[in-house]
Design a protein that fits this description.
This protein has four domains: about 15-150, PH-domain like, CATH 2.30.29; about 190-275; about 280-375 and about 425-510, no CATH class; about 380-425. It is about 40% helix and about 25% strand. By secondary structure, the protein is of the alpha+beta class.
């Protein structure tokens, strides 16, 4: 079933839109539950009123929502109380994302989200359209005209059959699968993600507050019964440390195993669910990714719209010569969530395959020939001082609050120096033709590859300690990614060298003209 289409080219959303959006009626039930405290009669009245209001609003909203695609624009008319007409030029559309939850997949419909450069949020959302109509929209608005035939609505008696908006695909334009990730590879991606360590801490804290894991029954086999209190596994373990150190270490080891396995298990499960059946396809100069089990996502974008590429290498993946690959386009504005502003090209990839994958985005980039330049040698001193400051403050605080033995924590200055040196080894920058590359991070190394023609602004920032050492951080701003955490940057360059590099890049950017 396709969306109704009028003779003048205007189309409505899928007829199932009111039904699928009726999930919002759950708010009426919630309000009714709250109102139940005032009596049964009030509950019935509140549920009836909220249900009627939401049902009417959803129905009227569906009837008043229309859209059409012209030669140069997407035009949308919508609004219940306030009527709005929105025109989105096709030349400014960066991405068209299709997203389908479980119910939508069941009815073969999807939600189409249209993204433009620099928007604070999604420019337009068509909720919902048929699966074929979503593919047709993406083909016409983004340029993926050969990935599927357009949807042709059924003709009614007396009407002239509608002609397709795009030609049928030819055999030469058939889509080609570039990469498909198996569930086993996704499990490895989840197990090697730094998210696993975060989940371990989250589960430990959650169990401490809510006691939802069977830690009591497990610790009962390792700790003396006089130290155990029902529902107080963590407190019991702390009390054990004051009485029996061997039992404490045993219990601590057991808890580490329990929460470690649980955390890594949740991380693996989350990775498999999110990226299930991950497939990357290439259509000439366009790329499309599709993935997801409960929520199926399909995103298509032109290669020319990519602002930068990011290679992520958490420490476990680096040891196994693995990485993940992401791209950012100008279509994901600063108002969107961080995980929605970067699109995954591969959740897991062998380091030896990076060159081939990068060629799908940047055909001119020779990854294997990149020569990295380290940050200024004084960066090692700065990295050590930052860690040493934390160690010294913690040591003094322990010594003052507990006993002079707290100064023993100062021995951590030795590993702090080694960590600073290891961190320094992962700082660097490089030039490769018309691209600038920067990398940083010890526990999760991030490498950004930015085409010079995509640079919007350059910033050389200096903290007071950096100024004292004659260092600075060069920040590279691209469209849709202004000055935020994990933006492309080269840390701890010499001040003079950083300014020279910034001036050179600015000159090259001016020579390329304005491109998005």
């Amino acid at each position: 079933m396709t969306a109704p289409k009028n003779g003048d080219g205007w189309q409505r959303l899928h007829p199932l839109t009111p039904l699928l959006r009726s999930v919002q009626l759950l708010y009426a039930v919630i309000a009714g539950v709250i109102a139940s405290q005032t009596g049964v009669g009030a509950t019935v009245v509140v549920i009836f009123v909220f249900t009627a209001v939401f049902a009417a609003w959803i129905t009227v909203s569906y009837l008043r929502f229309r859209y059409r695609i012209t030669d140069d624009s997407l035009i949308i008319i919508h609004g219940v109380l306030f009527r709005r007409r929105r025109i989105v030029p096709r030349s400014r559309i960066q991405n068209v994302d299709l997203r389908a939850g479980l119910f939508q997949q069941l009815f073969k419909v999807t939600t189409a989200r249209i993204e433009t450069a620099g928007g604070e949020a999604t420019e337009a959302t068509l909720h919902v359209v048929s699966r074929d109509e979503g593919v047709r929209l993406r083909a016409r608005l983004v340029g993926l005209a050969h990935q599927a035939p357009p949807a042709v609505p059924a003709a009614t008696p007396g009407d002239v059959p509608a002609m397709p908006d795009e030609p049928l695909p030819t055999p030469a334009a058939a889509k080609s699968a570039v990469h498909h990730v198996s569930p086993l590879q996704l499990a490895v991606a989840g197990a090697t993600s730094n998210r696993a360590g975060f989940l371990v801490g989250l589960l430990f804290g959650g169990d401490y507050l809510f006691d939802f894991m069977p830690t009591d029954r497990i610790l009962a086999r390792f700790l003396p019964p006089q130290y155990l209190e029902s529902g107080q596994a963590v407190e019991s373990l702390v009390q054990t440390a004051q009485q029996d150190m061997q039992a404490f270490l045993t219990g601590l080891f057991v808890l580490g195993i329990i929460f470690g396995v649980a955390g890594w298990g949740v991380s693996v499960l989350a990775s498999v669910i999110r990226y299930f059946d991950f497939t990357l396809r290439q259509y000439g100069s366009e790329l499309q990714v599709s993935y997801g089990l409960f929520t199926r996502r399909e995103k298509g974008f032109r290669r020319s719209r990519v602002q930068n590429v990011q290679i992520e290498e958490p420490i476990l993946r680096r040891w196994l010569s693995l990485a993940s690959l992401k791209v950012q386009t100008a279509g994901y504005g600063p108002g969107l969530k961080a995980d929605e502003r970067m699109e995954t090209l591969s959740p897991i990839i062998r380091a030896g395959e990076l060159s081939d994958y990068l060629h799908t985005v940047y055909p001119e980039l020779e990854w294997d020939d990149v020569e990295w330049r380290p940050s200024h040698p004084r960066a090692r001193r700065r990295l050590f001082v930052r860690r040493a400051f934390v160690v010294i403050v913690a040591s003094v605080a322990l010594a003052v609050l507990t006993s002079p033995q707290g100064f023993l924590l100062l021995t951590a200055l030795i590993p702090a120096w080694f960590l600073a040196y290891a961190h320094y080894r992962h700082l660097g920058h490089a030039r490769a033709g018309s691209y600038v590359l920067v990398r940083e991070g010890l526990w999760n190394r991030r490498t950004h590859i930015v085409p010079v023609r995509k640079i919007q602004a350059l910033h050389l920032r200096q903290t007071p300690f950096q100024r004292r050492l004659g260092l600075g951080t060069l920040n590279i701003e691209t469209a849709g990614n202004p000055m935020e955490l994990h933006a492309p940057r080269s840390i701890d360059l010499g001040t003079g060298y950083g300014m020279e590099m910034m001036d050179q890049l600015a000159t090259e950017v001016t020579g390329t003209g304005l491109t998005f």
